[in-house]
Amino acid sequence: MPQPAAIAVPSTDGVTVVAHDHGGEGPPLVLCHATGFHGRYWDPVCAALADDYRCIALDLRGHGDSTIPDGLDLDWRGMGEDVVSVLDAFELRSVRAAGHSMGGCSLVMAELARPGTIDRGWLFEPIIIPPNFDEMFVRTDDSLADRARRRRDVFESRDAAYERYASRPPFSEVDPAALRAYVDHAFADRPDGRVALKCPGEREAQVFEHSHTDVFERLGKVQSRLTVAGSGDGEPPAVIAPTVAAELPDGTFERYDDLTHFAPMEAPARIADAIRRAVR
User: Fold this and answer.
1) How is residue 34 annotated by DSSP?
2) Residue 54 dihedral angles phi and psi, to the nearest 5°
3) Which is nearest to 58 in space by CA: 76, 26, 85, 77?
4) What is the C-alpha to C-alpha distance for residues 146 and 122, in angstroms, rounded to an integer?
5) Which of 46, 187, 201, 259 could form a disulfide with 195 if both were Cys (CB 3.0 to 4.6 A apart)?
6) Tens digits of per-residue pLDDT, 195-247?
7) How far is the C-alpha of 128 from the C-alpha of 146, rounded, in Å?
8) Max CA-CA distance within the chain?
9) Which helix (H) or strand (E) holds 109?
10) Confidence (pTM)
């Protein structure tokens, strides 16, 4: 598959985000990633959708090839503003979209900020937290933020990173092409020949710590046709997914019992089919 064009787009707060435009003759489909990831791990999904859609995968602020000012507060409000900024740059309105985890919430925030932004979409376990679920995400003894801060940021090479990730959960269960796409674009080259995560653990932790928003309380205002999908892993994102779908005026829910929160990387072709059904 040809490499997408990487297009830098100014956003709010002095941020520059990057849109990876895969091209194609079909209608645009905007894809947003999970916390700690980047737009290019969608590559296998985009390849499966290439005959039907022009896929545009974003690197939201603090992730991938985006750039941010020193000390920027990584409030999730800015993620929604990044989506709107890219749609404005591409002169897109009422688009089809797909989002994973934080990316799903980012799309909903964009729609709330500017109604009519998202026509229809597919959201896998969007992190849209009901008030009573807050403790499960960021205030436990071993929170996602704590785990992120313990993450190894530097490897001898991309191949070394790939081998380490492929040897242990959760990445040991994902599609090899999806893991390769993630690893190849998650790291930046260092002067000493090693590679370092573009979204280091401390930054990822700060993003996790901003995961509670007021989006759940405003879901009743969202008029987009949205399919919310959940896995069968029993983790908090899977538990809240049907609740999110039920709060949406035009929301439906579908479950993938054999997948986990990393479903877009575990079964790219299957997920591409799910997106196609949801947004056609």
Assistant:
1) P
2) -90, 100
3) 85
4) 29
5) 187
6) 999 999 999 999 999 988 999 999 999 999 999 999 999 999 999 999 999 99
7) 20
8) 53
9) helix 102-113
10) 0.96
